[in-house]
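Researcher: I'm preparing a figure for a lab meeting and need a structural model of a single chain. I don't have an experimental structure, so a prediction will have to do for now. The sequence is pasted below. Please return the structure as tokens so I can convert it later.
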Amino acid sequence: NIIPYFLPIAHNVLTPEGAIYLFSSTTKLVDTLPIFNTYFKLHSIIVWDKRIGQIPHQLSHYKLRYEPILYGSKGLHKLNRYEDDVYQCDIPRGKKRVHPTQKPVELLKYLISNSAKDNSVVLDPFLGSGTTLVASKELGYKAIGIEISGKYCEIAAKRCSQSVFKLDC
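Model: Understood. Here is the structure written out token by token.
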């Protein structure tokens, strides 16, 4: 679990007026919350309702229909508008899904548009397939993505180059 190592670094780079969103799994939420609260003020837990649950591998689990997203800051972060803490958006499926934990562009646009201020730079330290970069550029924000996997760096770069917005990747 990289979260205990990542959060102190995130705390150092986040501006006092910035926001952090941390996607968690339902099974890791109990472990993640205390660590998150050590470095950030938790404002709320947003529920991403995927509309259709993923079929569990065992009958001892429920379908995983939602994913919790921790929203917090170092200081007093104010949202750009009042929004619901439950967001319904289908998980990418089929050919649209190029990463095992890929998020929908619409979801990232929802979060970014409600938190980023003028001249904000969006940082995604676990870039994956580049969804955050695509969403940021579509909203007019600069973004930085970091990804350890060469395979997913290539996928993210391809998604960026295919964007009609011509991302600077």
